[in-house]
């Protein structure tokens, strides 16, 4: 049984990492085809243009590169690329609620410095991109084998009209993420201030990440608070980009509270990474975060800045209790459990 995984996302993105984890399930029989070619362009439009091109033309690339003799199962690592016609078994992993995924703005990039003209250009690119994404999503509706990374997404797919067998298999947390000792030494190594309460934000800059709320809160919080950002900068944040899992683990361990004020998520893997590294988490009061975070998270209203500030203070006060509860959740996201479930799933799909 040979499995070919189709990755249509850039290197080190969450989808790219997911495709590599699928390979690790069975290195001999599972391989990845990267259907992603990066285009140069204006930074503002680059991400939207890239996704639009991949969703429109990706299927043409696949038809040229795929050979039916090389695989028994074709597994699309996410829902953006156009599926090909084949008589072999096909699987798609859908990572997002299709209703919100196809909204014009919520999944596009955010920056507080955009001018009206730039916003207008990007808005029109997003509209065109979403037409292709909807076309692809509607094609995947007919798939017999559909994976999701949360029960929340699975429920939304049924509401959207997916008719196949939908199964949830949680994404695994990397074994790199663990609790470390000697926080002060780690801060010194990373060049982080040792006399501040460090708030951490880990995400891309899509509008749904609600980074504007963090930016506003940092302007009001006392000077003893500093923001550490993994991704694009927010205000005067201490920013890290293109970090390895090893260094990301150190960043988690060096900080005091993880902030996840997202408006919408398909899972929210940084929450699980935060659990594994022992950092208390403040996150939005949304369905999927309750699914994975249960009672180990301080939930806030993502539309109210004061709710975020209160959540930060509560997390600092109840840190030990929150970490103790989180320790019981982490095993559900182990790679070994992911491996066992994926191998069993591939076998069942192949035998049908």
From TrEMBL:
InterPro entries with a match to the protein in the record: Glyco_trans_1
Top-rank taxon: Archaea
UniProt keyword terms in alphabetical order: Transferase
Transferase in keyword set: yes
Organism of origin: Ferroplasma acidiphilum
GO molecular function, one term: glycosyltransferase activity
Pfam assignment, any one: Glycos_transf_1
Domain Glycosyl transferase family: 183-321
Keyword Transferase: yes
Designated name of the protein: Glycosyl transferase family 1 domain-containing protein
